[in-house]
Design goal:
It is a single chain. With 318 residues, the protein is α+β, with helices and mostly antiparallel strands. The protein has 3 domains: 171 residues, no CATH class; 32 residues, no CATH class; 60 residues, no CATH class. Strands 2-11-10-6-7 form a 5-stranded antiparallel sheet. A hairpin with a 2-residue loop joins strand 6 and strand 7. Helix 2 runs antiparallel to helix 3 and helix 5 packs antiparallel against helix 6. This is DUF58 domain-containing protein. Keywords: Membrane, Transmembrane, Transmembrane helix.
C-alpha cells in the first residue's frame, strides 16, 4: 500500500509538478507561465454555474428571449473572469530575496521581490507558513512582499514552499501556482538570559589599553613629534604659532578573550548561548573581543563586521 501511494505521488510530481506541493527548489528568478498556472472554480463559481444552468432551462422552456440573453451575458462575464484570473499570474516574476537578522525564537522578516510587465496585477495572495500576504504589482515598479517566518533553529533556514494565488476579479475562479525558491536565511543562536561575565586573565598585555578618541578636548601649542593630522590649520592661521588638537580618549576597557574550551559544565547549545550573550554585551558596550572556537579563531577586534562574523560562526556550529 505504501509503495502504491509513493508511486502515485511520483507520478503526480512528474506529470503535474506545478499542481502539487512536492515541487523541488527553483533558482531565482522564477517566471510564471501557462504551463504552471492552474485554475479551478470556487464555491461561489460552482453556485453561479448551477444558477445559470437553471436560468438556461427556464428561458428555453418558456421561450423567454430576455432571460436567455441575460443568461448568456452572465455566462460570458464568468468565462471572461477566468481569463482575467489567468492573466493576473501569467508573466509574474519572483526575483531577489532579502532578510533581516534574527535569533532563535524570533520572527525573521524575509522580503520577496515581485515584478511584472504589460498590465497591473491586483489582489495577489501569497500563502507561506500559515500566513497570507496580499499585494499588487504595478508594471515597471518592483513590489516588495514581506514574509514573517518563525526562526525555529539556528543556522540556515530554507524558505518553505509558497502558494501564489488570486481570485480576481469576481471571485468565481481561483488561479494558483506553487513556488519553492532556492533561498535560505541565517538565524543567529539564542542568547543566554543571564550568567557570569567572561574571565579576564591577570597581566593581560591588552588589558586597559587606551585608544585615541575623536572628541576635541582642548587646543595647545605644537610640540615636535605631534602628528600632522592633529594640527588645527585654520586656527593656527590666526595665531602666532601652530596649534594642536587634543582629543579625548575613552576610559580604559578590558579586552574580552572568549574561549569555547574555557566554559565548563555546559552542553554545546548552552555554550553557544553564553558566548552569544558575551558577544552581544561586548558589542553594545564598545569593547573589543576575540573568539576562539574548536574549528576557528577570530582575533581581537570590534565593530559590526566582527560582531556578525562571530555570530555567524556560532550559528553554523555543528
Amino acid at each position: 500500500m505504501t509503495s502504491r501511494v509513493a508511486g502515485l505521488l511520483a507520478w503526480a510530481e512528474r506529470r503535474l509538478p506545478s499542481l502539487t506541493r512536492l515541487r523541488p527548489v527553483e533558482t531565482l528568478p522564477i517566471v510564471l507561465h501557462r504551463r504552471r498556472i492552474y485554475i479551478v472554480p470556487t464555491g461561489f463559481g460552482v453556485g453561479l454555474a448551477i444558477l445559470l444552468g437553471v436560468m438556461l432551462l427556464g428561458a428555453l422552456n418558456y421561450a423567454n428571449n430576455a432571460a436567455l440573453g441575460l443568461t448568456c451575458l452572465l455566462g460570458a462575464a464568468a468565462v471572461g473572469s477566468m481569463l482575467v484570473a489567468f492573466r493576473t499570474l501569467n508573466g509574474l516574476t519572483i526575483g531577489g530575496v532579502r532578510s533581516d537578522t534574527a535569533r532563535v525564537g524570533e520572527r525573521v522578516r524575509v522580503s520577496l521581490e515581485a515584478s511584472a510587465s504589460g498590465h497591473a496585477r491586483t489582489a495577489l495572495r501569497l500563502d507561506v507558513a500559515g500566513h497570507t500576504q496580499v499585494f499588487s504589482v504595478t508594471p515597471g515598479t518592483p513590489c516588495v512582499v514581506e514574509l514573517p517566518l518563525d526562526a525555529t533553529h539556528r543556522g540556515w533556514l530554507p524558505l518553505p514552499r509558497m502558494r501564489l494565488h488570486s481570485r480576481w476579479p469576481m471571485g468565481l475562479f481561483r488561479a494558483w501556482s506553487w513556488l519553492h525558491p532556492d533561498a535560505q536565511v541565517l538565524v543567529y543562536p539564542r542568547v543566554e538570559a543571564f550568567g557570569p561575565a567572561p574571565h579576564v586573565p591577570e597581566g593581560d598585555a591588552d588589558r586597559g589599553r587606551p585608544r585615541a578618541g575623536d572628541e576635541l578636548a582642548s587646543l595647545r601649542d605644537y610640540r615636535p613629534g605631534d602628528p600632522r593630522r592633529q594640527i588645527a590649520w585654520k586656527l593656527s592661521a590666526r595665531h602666532h604659532g601652530l596649534l594642536v588638537k587634543d582629543l579625548e580618549q575613552p576610559a580604559p576597557r578590558e579586552d574580552w578573550r572568549l574561549d569555547w574550551d574555557a566554559i565548563h559544565g555546559l552542553d554545546d547549545e548552552s555554550r553557544i548561548a553564553r558566548l552569544a550573550r558575551w558577544i552581544e554585551e561586548a558589542h553594545e558596550g564598545g569593547r573589543r573581543w576575540s573568539l576562539r572556537l574548536p574549528d576557528g579563531y577570530f582575533d581581537i577586534a570590534q565593530g559590526d563586521e566582527h560582531y556578525h562574523r562571530c555570530l555567524t560562526a556560532l550559528a553554523l556550529r555543528p
